[in-house]
Amino acid sequence: MSSYIAPSQIAQRQIDFFADKHVLVAGEAEDLFPVELAKHCQSVEVFTTNYGYYRQLADHENIRCHFGAELTAQSQADMVLLYWPKAKAEAQYLLAMLMSKLGTNTEICVVGENRSGVKSIEKMFKPYGKIKKYDSARRCSFYWGLCEEIADEFDLKTWFKTYTLNVNQHQVTIKSLPGVFSHGEFDVGSQLLVDNLPKLKGKVLDFGCGAGVLGTIMLMNNPDIDLEMCDISALAVASSQATLAANQLQGKVYASDVYSDTQDNYQFIISNPPFHAGLDTSYSATETLLEQAPSKLSKNGELMIVANSFLRYPPIIEQAFGQCHVTAKTNKFAIYHAEK
User: What is the span of the domain harbouring residue 11?
Assistant: First the structure.
């Protein structure tokens, strides 16, 4: 029981809601509760935008797992189990997509931690039908509802937020889907990184690309590089692809769980690495990124990252590379550089 996150524990308490149903799990799910759920209902499918979670579930043959920015496969689900995501806009996005896809008479159960704002579902679900809270435990809530209204047709293109940034004489168009890191402005850390990048050449990896701001600017400044961009989030991958296209640029963008799908022999690995996972802080992906970087770099390859200066990354970089240079610093951020 304790190996489940709190929202799964409350779903487990209400397991009777799922009996005989074809359940589609979506949202911020991150444990193996769907595997147990499959024993209590007709079928379980999982739709996730998180490539790491997709890889974790891919081996379980009694679960159909879908990964992407939207659900394109046919689904027989008559009930959705939605794990409330950390970004409210992402919850709206998932509801609009799933209710459009699955249609009227689809039941929905929503679980989430109270501090994550799960109560918003009461208002957010109104256009689709009725929803009501049935349980609360472990500082989480459990809602059940029914889709009674025909939802608008879902069109992914209308969900991009588009804005322009002026960065070092370049005007950059950014396309960003809900829940993707980019706040409608160029964040201070990324600006510091861009200002301190050397001339780039060869194969360059933008790790944790988000909406693609960094990769786009690197390509504008260094048109000859062979750019790859990766992120664990399908929403980020779709955003970066749209951002490159909006700026008439070409690069390879794909999903990767740290280095799971990357190549090696990169001349540069450059990152403004994420350190937020869900509502809790997580550094493990970045630590793996740093520890394994030398094995992914070519002979004189270089790693450059920007990070909050309070994070203890230099010792990890030193351990991996034998050195770590601070090439720039503000009161909040530091640029770390190492050569293989």
Answer: 6-155
